[in-house]
From TrEMBL:
<dbReference type="InterPro" id="IPR002068">
    <property type="entry name" value="A-crystallin/Hsp20_dom"/>
</dbReference>
<protein>
    <submittedName>
        <fullName>Hsp20 family protein</fullName>
    </submittedName>
</protein>
<dbReference type="InterPro" id="IPR037913">
    <property type="entry name" value="ACD_IbpA/B"/>
</dbReference>
<dbReference type="InterPro" id="IPR008978">
    <property type="entry name" value="HSP20-like_chaperone"/>
</dbReference>
<comment type="similarity">
    <text>Belongs to the small heat shock protein (HSP20) family.</text>
</comment>
<dbReference type="Pfam" id="PF00011">
    <property type="entry name" value="HSP20"/>
</dbReference>
<keyword id="KW-0346">Stress response</keyword>
<feature type="domain" description="SHSP">
    <location>
        <begin position="30"/>
        <end position="140"/>
    </location>
</feature>
């Protein structure tokens, strides 16, 4: 049984949220969830995040991390080793591609691989033009009169 949500009423009353609704629609359509490699997403500060992926057996040269628009892509391709015949293979070394949808203005700060744990540091940097600002309320008479700087007023 599927629970599909209809976002049509939200489209009628909101502007500029098309991307969010598309993300929600795409999330509903996911059939099988690939759980490998395992990962954590940690909020480390007000605007800082960290993605940690368990990648035992992978070297830095086996990994490729890229960011395209608002998508972070982590790919792993391990070279096939011919050390002998495996009697049991419990350490996964298969190729993978993991995608993370990033919000606007989130960028990758750093990536490191230590003891089989890949850490990707992310930071959201909101441009000055988009930060909240205080708007002064004035009457129409005040806006028509020329503004006078206090230092000039004292000199006169």
């Amino acid at each position: 049984m599927r629970n599909d949500f209809d976002f049509a009423p939200l489209y009628r009353s909101s502007i500029g949220f098309d991307r969010v609704f598309n993300l929600l629609n795409n999330a509903q359509r996911l059939q099988a969830i690939d759980t490998w490699p395992p990962y954590d997403i940690v909020k480390t500060g007000e605007n800082e995040y960290r993605i940690q992926m368990a990648l035992a057996g992978f070297a830095e040269t086996d990994l490729d991390i890229s960011q395209e628009r608002n998508v972070l892509i982590v790919k792993g391709q391990k070279a096939e080793e011919k050390d002998g015949e495996y009697l049991h293979r419990g350490i996964a070394g298969r190729a993978f591609e993991r995608r993370f949808e990033l919000a606007e203005h989130v960028r990758v700060e750093n990536a490191s691989l230590t003891n089989g744990l890949l850490s990707i540091e992310l930071k959201r940097e909101i441009p000055e033009a988009m930060k909240p600002r205080r708007i002064a309320i004035g009457s129409s008479a005040e806006t028509q009169a020329p503004l006078q700087i206090d230092a000039e007023r004292q000199v006169a």
